[in-house]
């Protein structure tokens, strides 16, 4: 099979039939064999009955229904386990992405051998203040921290080689950064393709302003995990050792100066009267704690060895 089309959805009853018929005619016109996976992420409207009904008429349609709303990442994850196509295309269900882009994305993966082709909504039809501007900021931060050169990380419309979706683990809210997850897993042939975008014809956006807080924290996590996830001691151990050494040397110096005072016959002032005493103490305690954190991190990795963080491209 050429294509698996993965569509996560939450309360999108108005769009589903139009979405399917457009996908169907696009794929048939370009002679691509395909399957469609609708993942109902806890909808409370008529979305699921509509999907059930469509799947009875068309064998290409498959569905997964979650018992409650788990989030877009979990929806993608569930579908990625099932897909059989050579190329996987993800798209939103709200008709903001155009199904007509599918053959172009497919071609770029197949003929130019990319791991990921990410859509780029160059001309975007969302609210400027609440979406477009923050998103610009976001994308530039993501580019800097991850080294993946994309303009539009969070575009719902993307195409993947099958090995990519089978190797990555989309968890939490990480759907925003799938290209970064893939790059960390060794899939570095990532590019983007300008795609059309339109304002939401039905319903409302399912993500509120909390997206920015979560998105930012996830970005920091990703950056940290990709740098030090496999070797926590290199971070915690280094910082811990420097702090401890600093504290220890300060304490040593304090003790020494006290001894010198005593030898000169000066008694009476307490070590604890000197603010350096507390700084030295705190530094030593914090340094030890950080060192222990690094050590515990290393132990956890040891116990979790079968967690693959590399992807073998070829074996002879
Ligand atoms: N979605 C989902 N689960 C959620 C939130 C959203 O499956 O918890 C789906 C939603 O139905 C849509 C896609 O994810 O198909 C993108 O969501 P939306 O259009 O609301 O995001 P926006 O375009 O505003 O960024
Ligand atoms: Mg949308």
Automatic annotation (TrEMBL):
SUPFAM superfamilies: Nucleotide-diphospho-sugar transferases. One of its GO terms (molecular function) is undecaprenyl-phosphate 4-deoxy-4-formamido-L-arabinose transferase activity. InterPro entries: Glyco_trans_2-like, Glycosyltransferase_2, Nucleotide-diphossugar_trans. Keywords: Cell membrane, Glycosyltransferase, Lipopolysaccharide biosynthesis, Membrane, Transferase, Transmembrane, Transmembrane helix. The chain crosses the membrane at residues 235-256, 276-296. The keyword Membrane applies. It comes from the Bacteria. Coiled coil: none annotated. Residues 4-167 form the Glycosyltransferase 2-like domain. GO terms for cellular component: plasma membrane. One of its GO terms (biological process) is lipopolysaccharide biosynthetic process. This is Glycosyltransferase involved in cell wall bisynthesis. It comes from Halpernia frigidisoli. The lineage of its organism: Bacteria, Pseudomonadati, Bacteroidota, Flavobacteriia, Flavobacteriales.
């Amino acid at each position: 099979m050429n294509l698996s089309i993965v569509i996560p959805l939450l309360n999108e009853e108005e769009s589903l039939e139009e979405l399917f018929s457009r996908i169907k005619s696009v794929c048939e016109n370009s002679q691509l064999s395909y399957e469609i996976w609708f993942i109902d992420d806890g909808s409370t409207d008529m979305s699921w009955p509509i999907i059930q009904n469509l799947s009875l008429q068309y064998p290409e349609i498959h569905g997964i229904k979650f018992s409650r709303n788990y989030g877009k990442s979990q929806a993608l994850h569930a579908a990625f386990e099932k897909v059989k196509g050579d190329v996987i295309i993800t798209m939103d269900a709200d008709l903001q992405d155009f199904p007509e882009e599918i053959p172009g994305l497919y071609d770029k993966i197949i003929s130019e051998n990319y791991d990921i082709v990410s859509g780029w909504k160059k001309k975007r039809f969302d609210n400027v203040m609440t979406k477009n501007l923050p998103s610009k900021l976001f994308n530039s931060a993501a580019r800097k921290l991850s080294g993946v050169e994309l303009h539009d990380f969070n575009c719902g419309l993307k195409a993947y080689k099958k090995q990519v979706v089978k190797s990555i683990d989309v968890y939490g809210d990480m759907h925003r950064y799938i290209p970064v997850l893939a790059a960390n897993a060794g899939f570095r042939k990532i590019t983007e393709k300008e795609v059309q975008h339109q304002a939401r014809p039905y319903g409302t956006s399912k993500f509120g302003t909390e997206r920015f807080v979560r998105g930012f924290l996830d970005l920091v996590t990703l950056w940290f995990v990709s740098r030090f996830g496999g070797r926590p001691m290199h971070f915690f151990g280094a910082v811990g050792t420097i702090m401890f050494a600093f504290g220890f040397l300060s304490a040593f110096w304090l003790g020494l100066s006290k001894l010198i005072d005593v030898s000169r016959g000066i008694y009476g002032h307490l070590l604890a009267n000197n603010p350096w005493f507390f700084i030295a103490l705190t530094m030593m305690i914090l340094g030890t704690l950080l060192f222990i954190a690094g050590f515990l991190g290393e132990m956890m990795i040891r116990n979790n060895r079968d967690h693959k963080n590399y992807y073998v491209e070829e074996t002879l």
